[in-house]
């Protein structure tokens, strides 16, 4: 049979067109997006995501492909590296919604409040290293830092649900551990304990670090993990006690975990929690206030006017759940602050409560932009300050001035020391994000703690 070459070429073009349309193959580590799955995979995800809006014919897109796939491989299980073909008619509506005018355009989606992610253009280097370095910093941190002062409150809260605790030499949560907490967001509470918290280690019978254990909830004994400190294995272990927030249940057929052979892994019932006076003391003059805080971090609660007083719920949230266990809180009426102070700390005359955490010794402050009545938002804010994972603003110089309030420093407020930021120690050969420029020879996958 003689084949007409023109007909063969035409048929080949038709049959191969769908395969050539997308730039990334089905085996690519890059998550493939369409207009149909964009909201589910990106907008509703608890994970941070980077999305490339591209066209298959674009030369710059083709040049980016190797580095982008290397970044996706590196961030597997930690964050999402995704792409959407804007040349596909079915996807043009989505690309238009995000104002895509050139290719490739890379945007970063980070989970935000009320289920709405924050979106920003990626302006970093278009290399595997550049994308990985930036995306690692965007991983949400839902890991609670526990110490001897906060362990009782941590154990009492949500006692019927599972809690996972990592005992480690590190001062901050690793990308792997933060990603694990995101996987089980809402079903398992994750915490981290420094090795120097000897009282807490003794409470749980921990004799070496790293040690990872899960408290199933209620009166069930804690179970110590004895596998490798890698994401996939730890994910399956935690999945024995609760289902992940997203995706299919993990190890559902192994709901009942074996108890540790060491009986000391069980946490004894914590002592009854005392009742505290929820009164937040009035701040003295600014000069005396700074002297009171000394080298500590203090939190200033600014009320809008003399007619406003904190509600009982707000006082309870601030003082019992936060001030007593972390930093001393003081309140002051905004009308007693000078215009210079209001401007210097980015305060405004509104009908809402405003908070500023500040270190007089180190000369910085941190702004709180959440809901003053939200216990969960306050906890996240406090944890970020403790772990040094929040932007600090330099305190501007102020001239000394007389204040209408008492000049005496407050003596009855607890003043815990400011947590020191330390460089995390290595517990085993670390797999770091590659520091060399592209091409990346071996892209580590952050798969170990």
What is the fold's blueprint, element by element?
Blueprint: H1 5-21, E1 31-33, H2 38-43, E2 49-54, H3 59-74, E3 80-85, H4 92-97, E4 105-110, E5 118-121, H5 128-138, E6 143-145, H6 151-156, E7 162-168, H7 175-183, E8 188-194, H8 198-204, E9 211-215, E10 223-224, H9 231-238, H10 286-293, E11 297-303, H11 312-323, E12 329-333, H12 339-344, E13 354-359, E14 364-368, H13 375-386, E15 393-394
Parallel strand pairs: 1-3, 2-3, 6-8, 7-8, 11-12
Antiparallel strand pairs: 2-4, 4-5, 7-9, 9-10, 11-13, 13-14, 14-15
Strand order, sheet with most strands: 1-3-2-4-5
Mind summarizing the main beta sheet? 5 strands, mixed
Tally of extended strands?
15
The shape is globular
SSE sequence, one letter per element: HEHEHEHEEHEHEHEHEEHHEHEHEEHE
Structural class category: alpha/beta
- Considering DSSP H and I runs of 4 or more, what fraction of the residues is helical? 25-40%
Average pLDDT across residues? 76
Oligomer designation:
single chain
Indicate the CATH architecture of the largest domain. 3-Layer(aba) Sandwich
CATH superfamily of the largest domain: Glutaredoxin
- State the low-pLDDT regions, or none: 1-21, 247-278, 400-443
Number of helices: 13
Word description of this protein:
It is found in: Endoplasmic reticulum lumen. Its EC number is 5.3.4.1. Its main location: endoplasmic reticulum. It catalyses: Catalyzes the rearrangement of -S-S- bonds in proteins. The chain has 449 residues and is α/β, with parallel strands linked by helices. It has three domains: 7-138, Glutaredoxin (3-Layer(aba) Sandwich), CATH 3.40.30; 143-265, 3-Layer(aba) Sandwich (Glutaredoxin), CATH 3.40.30; 286-394, 3-Layer(aba) Sandwich (Glutaredoxin). It has helices spanning 5-21, 38-43, 59-74, 92-97, 128-138, 151-156, 175-183, 198-204, 231-238, 286-293, 312-323, 339-344, 375-386, and strands spanning 31-33, 49-54, 80-85, 105-110, 118-121, 143-145, 162-168, 188-194, 211-215, 223-224, 297-303, 329-333, 354-359, 364-368, 393-394. Strands 1-3-2-4-5 form a five-stranded mixed beta sheet. The chain starts with a helix and ends in a 55-residue tail after the last strand.
